[in-house]
From TrEMBL, chain A:
Lineage of origin: Eukaryota, Viridiplantae, Streptophyta, Embryophyta, Tracheophyta
Protein name listed in UniProt: RBR-type E3 ubiquitin transferase
Assigned protein family: Belongs to the RBR family. Ariadne subfamily.
One Gene Ontology term of the molecular function aspect: zinc ion binding
Alphabetic keyword roster: Metal-binding, Repeat, Transferase, Ubl conjugation pathway, Zinc, Zinc-finger
Residue intervals of the RING-type domain: 114-328, 118-166
Species this chain originates from: Camellia sinensis (Tea plant)
Enzymatic class: transferase
From TrEMBL, chain B:
Family in the record: Belongs to the ubiquitin-conjugating enzyme family.
Name used for this protein in its record: E2 ubiquitin-conjugating enzyme
Active-site feature positions: C90
InterPro entries: Ub_conjugating_enzyme (IPR050113), UBC (IPR000608), UBQ-conjugating_AS (IPR023313), UBQ-conjugating_enzyme/RWD (IPR016135)
Natural source organism: Camellia sinensis
Alphabetized Gene3D superfamilies for the sequence: Ubiquitin Conjugating Enzyme
SMART domains: UBCc
Residues of the UBC core domain: 3-153
One MF term in the entry's GO annotations: ubiquitin conjugating enzyme activity
GO biological process, one term: peroxisome organization
């Protein structure tokens, strides 16, 4: 029952926050993995238009639609072309169109030569000064323009509806652009930008890179939104939640963990909750066990509840000669439980933090390793290939990362917060043992690898170097396999058996986090529509220009065509012309 | 600003000309401010509001008719979609379903329709909404009728 804890022992609870920004993207600079064809694409400001047109074109071709109708459909279906096609097949064309606010009027009446009465300003206007939308509603240009301006300023560019009562139709973007630019060219630009950025903002498979300050890029993934990517600006992130790459933690686990670390670090008051100072010598005393009579090492006994000094004679319900009325067992269970939870958290957090810290220290190895390698090269050994050193270091980074994120994973996987009802106690114990076995094996091998990489092998003789080389290569293979196995175990045996699939994780990438390649765009404005785009399927590098968010189509009116697997006619595109005009070119 | 003035002026002339066309609605414009209007509407028959005359206040924004006017009851009314204290009205066409093709006159018509067909699921007056939702039609009607008598009928009646 006597326990006097010095506060310095508890100091590390406070430093949780810095460990969160812990693993940064340093490893990205250690790059020797040959670039492979990536399914993730970087969409720069310049290629945004081309990327968007690709999807527009598919819908326009399939449904023989004009561009603004295709866009209205795509915005409604959040740029999910497959979903749109599925609705088409299931519910038919009419239902698809009606749902999204696309109205096609078959017979466009000729513009009335005489005057029409505009129902908005209640004014008779010449037919030439009025515009009929696809839905058949006819109002004067003045009223239309005012309406568009109000809507654009309200931020509703993507879905400007017709002015008529109960008319669901979305206004033709070419008409909007045309009428608005006559009065407010800058507003028309804003309108175009909204339309363009809708491709990113309303699109499940495209997201802005979360870099700050923003690099100007967006990332498009092909088929799985649970993945980790690296933008061409160098930032690595989880595509699904936009936080740092955190697998094998699920997004929800990671969110909870970050929050928990933050909250716990704010409970420096842990000490105040769990210790009280002795009324005699004022040292903090930790309560140990259920009884509320506490003794300090100085010999003083006191009442835990009121802090008052007491004698030592007591029962469970009262202390002799002391009656603060609070000496009861009631809140005991709660306090004990909270303490147990905290210890459990500390267990996982300390390991998580230890690996994060090691990762930081090892990141500093990059320079030393480079030096060592050049020393070795100068030594004129028979051995000429030193890729095993950098590969080993890289493997160390990868697996260290996996290891540190495996602790918050385990904290939630085997704790009470998330899956209490999903597993029986026994089931949970078996799974936990299975997982911890793997984790420990990985841990042991990562530490070994770390130790060998840090050896001053550039000072060793050839035989010793060869020996270390073998060990490093072996350990690299082993840790890679162990990581892979751990992910498989998590995906199949642990998360896979859960009822609700909300805990998907990004798959293990032996080569590291995938670098998104630039969406290729050809820049030659002289390409005619009979020529194929010369850069087809060639992933260009380094067309990222100055980095701002895309701003206005005015800056995007270079001709661009993009390439992907789908074969189709490439042509020069003038943003300022409606699609049907371009088609006729 | 210019457009809204012109349009309101048109509506004003229309109201003057068609005064007899809709005897249930009497719209009037403030003498000094064309953006302030009031209306007297008759409670629809076969409702607890029958026999009452209700006053509405319109405040028209400068963006009118691109943006809807603000309308509230000046006369106390016990109705699920009208705030009992402020007279604020919950009606979709006064919010996101607004279309510039509406006029002040047609807004009055929509409000009369709302009086006859309350929407208990979007209540501004919870007591009234709860009565209706719990199926206590008689309770609702007697409360509404009482307030109509108290507030919307001339004192001598
Ligand atoms: Zn007009
Ligand atoms: Zn229409
Ligand atoms: Zn970026
Ligand atoms: Zn995530
Ligand atoms: Zn003491
Ligand atoms: Zn005791
Ligand atoms: Zn006490």
């Amino acid at each position: 029952m006597e326990d006097c804890t010095s506060s310095s022992e508890q100091d590390y609870y406070c430093s949780d926050q810095d460990s969160l920004d812990g693993i940064d993207n340093d490893e990205s600079h250690v790059q020797w993995v040959p670039p492979k064809a990536s399914s993730c694409k970087v969409i720069t400001k310049e290629s945004l238009l081309a990327a968007q047109r690709e999807d527009l074109r598919r819908v326009m071709d399939l449904l023989s639609l004009r561009e603004h109708h295709a866009r209205t459909l795509l915005i409604h279906y959040r740029w999910d072309v497959e979903k749109l096609f599925a609705v088409l097949v299931e519910k038919g064309r009419d239902c698809l169109f009606a749902g999204a606010g696309v109205t096609l009027v078959e017979n466009h009446d000729l513009p009335s030569s005489s005057t029409i009465m505009c129902n908005i300003c209640i004014e008779d206007v010449p037919g030439a000064d009025a515009t009929k939308m696809d839905c058949g509603h006819d109002f004067c240009n003045n009223c239309w323009t005012e309406h568009f301006i109000v809507k654009i300023n309200e931020g509703q560019s993507k879905r400007i509806r017709c002015m008529a009562h109960k008319c669901n139709a979305i206004c033709d973007e070419a008409i909007v652009r045309n009428l608005v630019s006559k009065r407010h060219p800058d507003l028309a630009e804003k309108f175009d930008r909204f339309l363009l950025e809708s491709y990113i903002e309303d699109n499940k498979m495209v997201k802005w890179c979360p870099s700050a300050p923003h690099c100007g890029n967006a990332i498009r993934v092909e088929d799985d939104e649970f993945c980790e990517v690296e933008c061409s600006c160098g930032l690595q992130f989880c595509f699904s939640c936009l936080a740092e790459a955190h697998s094998p933690c699920s997004c929800l686990m990671w969110e909870l963990w970050t929050k928990k670390c933050h909250d716990e670090s704010e409970t420096v008051n842990w000490i105040t909750v769990h210790t009280k100072s002795c009324p005699k010598c004022h040292k903090p005393v930790e309560k140990n066990g259920g009884c509320n009579l506490v003794s300090c090492i100085c010999g003083q006994a006191f009442c835990w509840l009121c802090g008052g000094a007491t004698g030592r004679d007591h029962t469970w319900s009262r202390i002799n000669g002391h009656s603060c009325g609070r000496y009861k067992e009631d809140r005991e269970k709660k306090a004990e439980r909270a303490k147990r939870d905290l210890y459990r958290y500390m267990h996982y957090h300390n390991r998580y933090k230890a690996h994060t810290d090691s990762f930081k220290l090892e990141s500093n190895l990059k320079e030393t390793i480079r030096e060592k390698v050049s020393n070795l090269e100068r030594n004129e050994l028979r051995l000429k290939d030193f890729s095993w050193v950098t590969n080993g270091l890289y493997r160390l980074f990868r697996s260290r990362r996996v290891l540190s994120y495996s602790y918050p994973f385990a904290y939630y996987m085997f704790g009470d917060d998330l899956f209490m009802d999903e597993m029986t106690k026994e089931e949970r114990e078996i799974k936990q043992h299975l997982f911890e076995d793997q984790q420990q094996q990985l841990e042991a091998n990562v530490e070994k690898l770390s130790k060998y990489i840090e050896e001053p092998f550039d000072q060793f003789g050839e035989n010793k170097v060869m020996e270390i080389r073998m060990v490093v290569i072996n350990l690299s293979v082993i840790t890679d396999n162990l990581c892979k196995k751990m992910y498989e175990c998590i995906e199949n045996d642990l998360l896979g058996s859960l009822q609700f699939g909300i805990h998907s994780i990004a798959p293990y990438q032996s080569k590291g986090i995938e670098k998104a390649t630039e969406l290729s765009v050809c820049w030659n404005p002289k390409v005619t529509n009979t020529e194929k785009c010369p850069t087809r399927d060639y992933h260009t590098n380094g067309i990222t220009k100055e980095s701002n968010r895309p701003s206005g189509s005015g800056s995007l009116d270079e001709s661009g065509c993009s390439s992907r697997k789908r074969p189709r006619k490439e042509s020069t595109i003038d943003l300022n012309l409606p699609a049907e005009v371009i088609d006729r070119n | 600003m210019q457009a809204s003035r012109a349009r309101l002026f048109k509506e004003y002339k229309e109201v003057q000309r068609e005064k007899a066309a809709d005897p249930d609605i009497q719209l009037a414009c403030d003498d000094s401010n064309i953006f302030k209007w009031t209306a007297l509407i008759k409670g629809p028959s076969e409702t607890p509001f029958e026999g009452g005359v209700f006053q509405l206040a319109f405040s028209v924004p400068e963006q009118y008719p691109l943006q809807p006017p603000q309308v509230r009851f000046l006369t106390k009314i016990f109705h699920p979609n009208v705030h009992f204290k402020t007279g604020e009205i919950c009606l979709d066409i006064l919010k996101n379903a607004w279309s510039p093709a509406w006029t002040l006159q047609s807004v009055c018509r929509a409000i009369i329709a709302l009086m006859a067909h309350p929407e208990p699921d979007s209540p501004l007056n919870c007591d009234s909404g709860n009565l209706l939702r719990s199926g206590d039609i008689r309770g609702y009607q007697s409360m509404a009728r009482m307030y109509t008598r108290l507030a919307a009928m001339s004192k001598k009646g």
